[in-house]
């Protein structure tokens, strides 16, 4: 009986050690270079030109190692996106705050570099704007792709492009487009 209990405890300890090596949790933050693609915005008969804004993102990361060359990386991020609009000297910024949930397939090209691809679902949490443009959609779906670079065992850098596939506004044909550069730390 004592041997059975000892073997069970030993197997549980080995299993938990192996699980700890297969899943890493961490945090990340970085800069967004965001814009909105699609039709121009018209307010009171005036056309406004779009321009990109610089904003930020931050959140939690998990990496689930499935094989030596492949893992899945779900994230939970707060990300600000949008654009700046200008017409005849009048300029305002439309900044949308999203809870973004990308789930990326990570193809490890070697121990340092990975190719990251996958879908992203985003839920609108806040809207900060200087003028009443158009009603924003509360859900957005997009595709994310980029590269990851492991600097050390726990510190990483990532570059990513996120292309919105659904409209960001109920009344205008605009989609979010974001280039993200981030740094993170896994535990």
UniProtKB/TrEMBL annotation:
KW Signal (keyword) present: yes
Protein name: PorT family protein
Superkingdom: Bacteria
Keyword Signal appears in the UniProt entry: yes
Boundaries of every Outer membrane protein beta-barrel domain copy: 19-167
Key words of the record: Signal
Stretch forming the signal peptide: 1-20
């Amino acid at each position: 009986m004592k041997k059975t209990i000892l073997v069970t405890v030993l197997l549980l300890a080995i299993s938990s050690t192996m699980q700890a090596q297969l899943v890493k949790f961490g945090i990340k933050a970085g800069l967004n270079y965001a814009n909105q693609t699609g039709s121009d915005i018209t307010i009171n008969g005036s056309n406004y030109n779009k321009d990109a804004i610089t904003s930020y993102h931050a959140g939690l990361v998990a990496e689930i190692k499935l094989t030596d060359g492949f893992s899945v990386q779900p994230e939970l991020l707060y990300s600000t996106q949008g654009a700046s609009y200008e017409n005849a000297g009048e300029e305002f910024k439309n900044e949308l705050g999203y809870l973004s949930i990308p789930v990326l397939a990570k193809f490890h090209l070697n121990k340092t570099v990975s190719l990251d691809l996958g879908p992203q679902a985003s839920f609108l949490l806040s809207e900060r704007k200087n003028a009443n443009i158009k009603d924003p959609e509360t859900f957005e779906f997009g595709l994310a792709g980029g590269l990851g670079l492991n600097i050390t065992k726990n510190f990483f850098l990532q570059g990513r492009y996120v292309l919105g596939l659904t409209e960001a506004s109920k009344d205008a044909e605009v989609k979010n487009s974001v280039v993200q550069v981030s740094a993170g730390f896994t535990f």
